[in-house]
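Thought: the user asked what DUF221-domain-containing protein looks like in 3D. I have the sequence; next I should run the structure tool and report back without guessing.
Action: structure_tool
Action Input:
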Amino acid sequence: MPPFNLVSGSATLVLAASLFQQAAAQSAANSEATTSTVISSIVLNLIIFAILFTIFVLARPRFKRVYAPRTYLVTKEEQIEPLPQSLFGWLPVWLKTPTTTILEKSGLDSYMFIEYLEMMLWIFVPIWLLSWIVLMPVYGAGTTGTGTGFNRFILSRVGKSPQQQKRYVAPLLIQWIFTFWLMWNVRSRMSKFIKLRQQFLVSPEHANTAQAKTVLITGIPNELCSEKKLRSIYSQLPGGVAKIWLNRNLKELPDLYDEREKWVNKLEGAETSLIKTAYKLVKKGKAEDNSGSLPGADVEINAEVADQYVPKKKRPTHKLGKIPCMGEKVDTIHWCREEIARLNKEIERMRSEINVDYKNYPPQSSAFILFNTQIAAHMAAKAVAHHEPYRMTNRYVEAHPDDVVWANMNMNPYERKIRTLIGWAITIGLIVFWAVPVAFVGIVSNIKGLANNDTVPFLGWLNSIPNVVVGIIQGILPTVLLAVLNMLLPIFLRLLSRLSGTPTRSAIELDLQGRFAAFQIVQNFLFLTLISGNAGQIAQFVTQVGQNPANFPGLLAEAIPKGSLFFLSFIALTGLSGAASLFAQVAGLAVYYVKKFLLASTPRKVWHIDHDTGAPAWGTLFPQMTLITVIGIGYVVIAPIVNIFVVFTFFLFYLGYKYLFLYVYDNKPAGETSGLFFGKAIRHLFAGLYVEMVMLTAIFFLAQSEDANGGNRMQSAIPEGAFMIILIVIVMGFHYFLNDSFKELETALPLTLTAGNSTEGQLQGNFTRTSGETAYTEKRHINAQGSPDETPGAGVNGLQPHGVNGAGVGSAEKHQSAGGLTPEQEQAFFHPSLTGEQKPIWLPNDKFGIGRAGVASARKAGLDATYEHTSVTEKGQVETDAYEPPGEPLV
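Observation:
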């Protein structure tokens, strides 16, 4: 839908326009207030930057958990050497660390994000210098146009005399240079990305993994939903099929499995709460400490030892009603044990039924296929599998069990199409109606203009306060409000992607990237350009566009220069405060200690608080950079003062994210897309370039010269406009050939790289990081005292993996030997409810023996439980030194 339809068709925009229909327009000639606004914003953000960076410098050596978790919390292969502990001795070591270390330790997605930031620096630094040398004098020296302060250096500052109108040649020349420089950099980086991706795919560490050879296929028709038929189809590919996992309709089994997880967590919390209550009562003298008479660790403790310390009225309880605080009141510990035992039996019964009953638990429309060769998996993903529409059309190569959204696995293709259509309709609707809050942000950015208008008397008090305060209100508050709005958007957009039926988390993030980038370009660039600095003309603008939509490019072209000051404030906040917050990690530091204080209630929660590491949300991170890129491209010629802000913003982000990807973020291999987010970000860059070129073309064609008396107007920049049309055609041609050259290579595995497994066709690279087969590798368990060991190769309650798919045990053994799969690999792509054992109940080993007694009682009830690798301090705080929490192998 064209932008002018989005604007003119929105009743909310008309409502917003009525708020400042009578407001006086703030012209470029009266720009001292807006200039002070930008200066106030810069000064304040410099102060914030200094404070946050000081916090980082002082806190970094003391809080390794927050500022350097990758030095010890990740696997040995992915760990990085710690930085020196001195206040500033770490700087040269960090700055000298090559960015290729990110590629080796954190994966291609992380590295390509840094590459994107580096590319922006390569693009904008030379253009910043060139535009200041050429355009700043052209716009600011000896012109008769209106505007002071920062507005002396915008395109609209060029006067109307025929002589001054000749200055339009300068922005045309810079635009051509900038465009060709941008295209060269894009072509160069895309070529590098494709080589790195291919290098990653064929590296032995990745190519030999099961993940590299597995394809997820959805939309399989019922008549082909059997292992035998799928094998007959895909065995035609090189090497044949090693293993097939069919997804089945498991009815209520997943709900029972999730319910068991819920009650296990609740039982752990209740038992730990009981122990903490005992410590408090002993400390207050309300209970006697009998820990000295406790028997040895190898002697079973009385199950009711807790009664010596905690009276029954203080034991944990809860009510069974579905409505909170309603229903029968029960003892939480006793009730949870009984409920978990019941669920264990119910889950075992259902698994036994599923093993033999294919009528009530039929295969559904998706399957995972593991091939014997990597090239076969890529060929299966590219090949048209079915002769009818919408059958087996969605295929996902490099499938990983930790990346699967199981709730979306069995959706038929028609339902998925309808859901996707509805999801995008809602997304487009949000782009339209989000104009209401964004319009409010634009109004606040020009609230001084409203205060000077008699029609809005309640804002008159703003005229009596200092300009610095008004500058903060206009410069800081709008950008903060905009940031809050952008925090809410991805939550809903990600939900739309998930509800559309996307079956993997990485695919959801890729879909989110497209939706959120559309918002950034349309709302946070185009719409804010119209609103900011043009309050008094908005109603007239809407009326003109509604009467003649063809006027939209010209009107937007006139609005763009006037909106530059708002974006200066926006980029200052984003670059200075945003980049400093990357280093300071104030929120992460606060959240960690708040969690330790409020949520460290069980050994499992303590372990996760101490060991879980953060990771980037690619679906929102790349669009945030896209917005800054589009703003920079949009104003590179029209308001060259913006260029220096863009350069320093990207530079600070480059430094900040380089530190985070080296020492903080742990991008899990299960979600690795091998750089696909980078390719989408490049395509979004062109949207900003097209908008900027069209607006500049409109400015040239609308430019008119006037004689000294203000008469005899005539078009003065027709040649410049014509040359811009030629440039647009060149860019369109480049864009086409760029996609034609690289689009397929982004997701393909070329035969030339795999033929005969020859190393001659493979690129040279250093990939020490594997694809992270968390569900395929051997699992290390904490040996719980008295708990039965898992029998290698055994199915869940006797359930053989191929029995679930409809093949016999003999078939399973045959394919295991053919594919060389371990028992863990055999079960990798079954729904967790089919293979997951009851998570061991993990209780603290306290000095009173309450935890040990709880473990003994749980085992008597037939539950798996342990108290190993835990302890409780004298203050009642739970601690653990476990390598991994029981029942949760490291991923």
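Thought: the tool returned a structure. Summarizing for the user.
Final Answer: Structure for DUF221-domain-containing protein predicted. The chain is about 55% helix and 5% strand. Residues 255-355+837-880 form one domain.
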